[in-house]
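Sanity check record (used in CI):
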Amino acid sequence: MKKKLMAAFLSLTMLVSSVGTSFAAERTSIQAKAGNSISTATPISVGGSYSGSITDYNKSDFYKITLTSSGRLNVKLTSYMKWVYFYIYDQNGRQIYDDNLKWDSASEQGLLDVTYDLTSGTYYVGIVKDGSYAGNYKLGTSFISANQSFEEGIWGSNNSLTNANKIELNKTYNGQIAYNDEKDFYKFTLNKSEKINLKLISYMRWVYCYIYDINGEVVYENNLRFNDSSGQGLINEDINLAAGEYYIGIVRDTGYTGNYNFKITSKLSQTIASTLNIANANYPTTLTQGQSFKLTGTISSNYKLTSVTVRVLDSYGNAVSAASKTVSPNAYSYSNIDSGIKFGSLSAGNYRYQIIAKDASGTQKILLDKAFTVQAVSNSVTPGNPGTAVKTGKTTSSLNVRKGPSTSYASLGKLAQGATVQIVGTDSATGWYKIKYGTGYGYVSNKYVTITGTSGGNNNTVTPGNPGTTVKTGKTTSSLNVRKGPSTSYASLGKLAQGATVQIVGTDSATGWYKIKYGTGYGYISNKYVTITGTSGGNNNTVTPGNPGTAVKTGKTTSSLNVRKGPSTSYASLGKLAQGATVQIVGTDSATGWYKIKYGTGYGYVSNKYVKLS
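Expected output for SH3 domain-containing protein:
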């Protein structure tokens, strides 16, 4: 009997020992499945459940998850440790999520439930020991595919206009904005200007939707918000677009991610004609030379405007002043580009004033085309020899000197309070005084001048000698400006390089600046930057012999080209001549070979390379 009891006890001991060995082996086997780093991570299937232990000898477990499509990954962790670290990484080792999970003392377990929208690719889950805490855990995963129309990998593949996916009209496309893919771009083409319908359904709290043209300009935008009642955000809008290539962009707003679908439907049969027009437009009819003019008016269309051009054409059809602006609203006040049209700089003659606009439908129209005249300034000088001062006066305030006898004329410069002026006449309409100013004349308001006496004298600042005759020659010691008058307060006519030879015809008595021959006229330079090299009485006339202003040749332009103030491209443009225009040549510049021609009511220069003599 004793032997039987002993045998039974041994059998029971072996059984218990065997069961304990089996449990230990199973536990070791589970821990052996989990790698200790990303590089040794154990692959697991999405949708499965796994358990393991963190011990003093096994301080971390890593699992590898492969997503074959973009979608929403859910990871649940139940921990039986007081503290433990939890991580999610992408295939490049970039951390997507981390948490330091603490257990609940009542239930003696910690619960973690994490959901992320991710692109297809490989991801890693890490469970890592925190301090001395050890214990068991359970890990579970689930996944819902986004069913994207264009599958994307880590960090996306259509994140710019350059990489946009090509789509067709009248077809629905599915997409996802993910944690690691914040933008999706699609490209579509309209063969004709038409109305389209954009329908976008979003399952994100907020998201941006844009439409761009081929140049990357935004032609439509919407910051779509989720509707709590319907459980989605909705755009359902008709948009008029011109023919061309476009891009639709779905862009993440802050951290919101999720799925969306959209469809662009052609509504060609419902396309609306452009209503491009102009309202409240003003325009000049007759101006006096030097008079400015302020443009006002509004251009509008049922389509977005794309460009507005304002221009002035001379009697030959050449644009002598123009301004253009790229715009995007449905209505635009073209007074915003008024400053680009210099009415005050136009010479006397006949002109046309045009306003041209284009909208997103591709419609372009000349909305305004009006003729106007610029008249030469009539002489309002009181009887006496032209240019002879009949009165002298002093300014009672700082005031502008203008091109004509009112504030509507452009300013030539300013006079300081107390400046002496030589009055050569009075405008019969406004009472403004015509005064000597620099090397010419200007107008000042009579309200700010006190008459100090009469004078028949000449306050000529030029040293004795025949007007325009060179009395000295010199060389510039530095690069310097040539100005309209004898100080830096006058506008620049151009620049002279260091070492340039100048022909000096006089000296300003107040500032000492030299008056020099410059181009076809005169200008002033600072005497501080000129070394006198000798005296001369010669004449540096660049025009071929003949009566001044008499055409000695005629020719035709072989190309469209600029007419300039002087004989090189460094001079300002006066306007343009069309190819085949006839020109009357009155001289040739000896240095550059450029032709001096009759232009409008004056003269200009054109390159001889683009003129064929008749």
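Residues 1-32, 379-386, 456-467, 537-548 have pLDDT under 50 and may be disordered. If this sentence no longer matches the regenerated tokens, the check is flagged for review.
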